[in-house]
Amino acid sequence: MKKLFVSIYKESLLLLRDIEGLILVFFMPLCLVVVMALLQHRTFQNLEETKIPVIIVDHDNNALGTAFRNGIRKFGMFEVTEITDTNPNTIIEARRNVAEGKFQIGIVIPENTTNAIKTRVLDLVRKQLPLSFESQNQTQAGEAVISLFFDPITKPSFRDLAQSKLNEFASWTETRIIFQTYSKIIDSFTGKSTDISYPDEPIITYSEDSVSEYTGGLTPNAVQHNVPAWTLFGMFLICIPIAGNIIKERNDGCMARLKTIPVSYLGIMSGKTFVFIVICMLQAALIILAGIFIMPLLGLPKLVINHNWGALFTITLSSAFAACGYGVAIGTIASSYTQAATFGSVSTVILAAIGGVWIPVMVMPEIMRHISEFSPMNWGIRGYYDVFLRNSGTIEILPAAFRLFIFYIICTLTSLYFRKYSSSK
Amino acid sequence: MDDKSIVEIRDLIKRYNGRLEPAVDNISLEIHKGEIFGLIGPNGAGKTTTLMILCGLLKPTSGNIRINGSDLSHDLNLIKKFIGVVSQEIALYEKLTAYENLYYFGRLFNINKKELNPVIDALLNRMGLFKYKNEMIGKFSGGMKRRINILAGLLHNPKLLILDEPSTGCDVQSRNVIREYLLELNATGTTMIYTSHLMDDVEKLCSRISIIDYGKIILTGTPAGLISLHPECTSLEDLFLISTGRYLRDK
Fold it and tell me: Is the Cβ of A423 closer than 8 Å to some Cβ of chain B?
């Protein structure tokens, strides 16, 4: 135990005397989390919150055109610019604006669209109730073709969503006209004016809720995802300074001296692991605090941590163990700093990618979802999601924490085996 | 192993993985208590490999080694307490002070703080480094680092000191201080195994030497005795060149 304490003391001194290195260890992951949260904020935002710039050229200038424009504006997801001038050049102008990227969607409502719909509805009613139209002239049924054109860089998901919303609205307008026509016919039969208007709101509405025990109804957002995800990434990147520390010690001959002293390799590595675990914990605390206090200042949502401190501490500690164990293994096995830095950084990026740091595992292809099961960062993220989004307690996150701790043990045993093997070469 | 032997090496062979030629080829040696034993040879002759095996840093391919009556392959931890090692590298932490370096290594030998602090002060004083006690090793000159490097192997008062080129790169003054201190230690009963390319140091320090080349011991005896056996030699350096040849050993 005395040897462990003195190793911790030595490692702490070495670390504290490398102030620049220490600042980088804390500052870089913090920067990474903030930048990634800002970048991914839009992706995580509900599309309803995003305004799509739309230009509407209304040559109809009638009931449908007006209702259509008002309705589209009411959806809230469009930033609407209207042109009601019936000059044909306005269509060319609108197309050019969309092509230049000033608008993502252009909508052209041609002349007589309202009349075309009305005529079609009247034709249908005439076929059904011929007596009611005896005194009226026959009309020619027209076609209502609303043109849509998109900026080529508009994401397919945006196009689909916009198109589906427009279809929804066109159907509603058409139904409204049908309703009004039938309403007038019925009034003429009964001789009374019912004056019933078609309801502005849909009859069927949807209520949405995340299945979470959290009473606030918390849903994943850029901050809730990025803070734990990039905290884990930062933790695992600590494998590079740990490995560098071990390799420097070996190259300087200090490790050879330590081998001539009655102290175990496990004891020496435990001293390093302890100090770097403390660094990881402080790093995580700093990033979480940034999520709570700094990110809202940058226009991002505030990190909600649910106050399950035991669970949060357990998952952070076990992640720190896994990250430090990984660093010790790389430092023991790599024969040069270049090897360790290259392998450490690239493998951390790979583990992060398959673990769901960049994109959540749920949107990965099936094979990648299976592969992600093998990434310790995936176990860590799951643990953090449990704490932050599902309001899980310490018991619930134990399986994830246990996996991370087993990973640490495997890394440590690998280091010990490799150390033993290298002295018999 | 007789009473006067402190180290007994029997039929020692070390063959590195992937190498056909053994680095150490069937060496047998006895080192007596209280002597300073010099192991000299050209680069790649097998000196450092032999010392690394004696320190437990490498495992031999075959052969037996007994140190102070204990078998190296079974009682390594016991032997580690008995020996002190001074490597040819400056095995110190540059960002720790002289005191912190010595304190760290001393504590790993289980020396308690109360006993350790006076030992550190005395050793630093003896090597003329006491006033630099709280300065970082990174700021020391090469000679100062060498002296601290030696002290780090002496904290636990070892009975056998293994020195692998301890004064390489030192100026004349530092070499002189080191030499005097090693003789002083030897006078208190510390046995030493010493390797160096500095034949002058070997001649002045060692009571007995072995010349090793291509992993084999080719000569063993007192420096004066060996020189006298070769009338054409006037110094240990002459003897060394006659025994190992004048061609360069770049590999």
Answer: yes
